[in-house]
Structure prediction request, 403 residues.
Amino acid sequence: MALHLRFGEGVSGRGVYRVHFPLLKERCRRLLRLLHLEDSEASIILLDDARMADYNQRFRGKEGSTNVLSFPAGPAEEDDFIIPEAELGDILISLDTAAREAGEQGLSLHHRLMELIIHGVLHLIGYDHERSEEEALRMWDYEKDLFQRIQYTREHAMPYLAINVDHIATIRQARGGMEPDPVFAAGLCELAGADGIVVHLREDRRHIQDRDVRLLRQTVKTKLNLEMATEAEIVDLALEIVPDMVTLVPEKRKELTTEGGLDIVENAKKVTKVIDRMRKADIPVSLFIDPAPAQIRAAKDAGATFVELHTGRYCEARTHKEQEEQFRLLERAAETAYEAGLRVNAGHGLDYRNVQPIASLSVIEELSIGHAVISRAMLIGLENAVREMLSLVRSAETLSAED
Ligand code: PXP
Prediction:
């Protein structure tokens, strides 16, 4: 089956809302598989409020717009020569209303659109919440279940795993000698299948040194991501070394590790300036931010290519409820950033227990993980530690929507 997705005529929101059709189509495909409707067809048309109000008036005699309307194709007449059993009907969705509801409920636009598509498709196949309270509850439960199975799985693209090797350098610096060498460690990570190497060149040079970054530039075969603050000296060095990308992070001298996202709203001018300089050298910039809508907007305005969502609070959550809340914030932020045209990475604090829900968020491209992998490497070896993490990240895809 295919759900044919398109904009209706006169959609004023076409430029206002960034609807990502490939993402929705992929989710629609999973929905149809779950419903065993692979051989059927339906059209989903995205309208504005004005057109929706028109349909609502004409077909239901109701004033004003609504979020979704379903028009089942209806049973074939007995004497129909061709029985159109493959054609389920049409679903109309108001983008204006979906966006408003998403805002009110603290959801991303794509989250709300998918809920409405599921609702519309269930109507097409005969579910009707208006028939009885019991059926309404049944339909609602089924919608929630389908949504879970579609949204929190990824079947194809899986996130890349980039390994942060700072702590190899931390051990070296403990004695101030040559061992262990983060450059050698980076090679081992790549041999074990890591998709990228991350290092944070701190102003105080507490772990990674200039020499490491220069050598890594020559040896890393995957992708070198240089984490750094916006200080002029480090910016100049980055421009000289030209890593594959830079991630701007906040830096405090006394902190043990990065404590929170970079406040782009506060530091817009400085950040924009660094991004402009990097752009001239063709270096994409990622901004490490808290999962907050204002930070995402500011990141977009500053001209970032990526945001890296700070997963620290999700990882540190002490109760299931708190972790769930933090997860929702990350999920929403990931989709909001994606809708805004940003590419999305995530990291900080991820470990072997908490990584899979984050890895299953389908708009996240890359996870940056350091401490957990290097700690495990002490006990089981670096290549084994990387392989174990890779298998968790990659099997997040196979939590997939099984029928
Ligand atoms: N992302 C950023 C921006 C970081 O600063 C760090 C820590 O250096 C990480 C990811 C990796 O965090 P962790 O070492 O907790 O995996």
Remarks:
- Residues 164, 166, 200, 227, 247, 249, 257-258, 288, 308, 347-350, 368-372 surround pyridoxine-5'-phosphate (CB under 6 Å).
- The chain is about 45% helix and 15% strand.
- The longest strand covers residues 87-94.
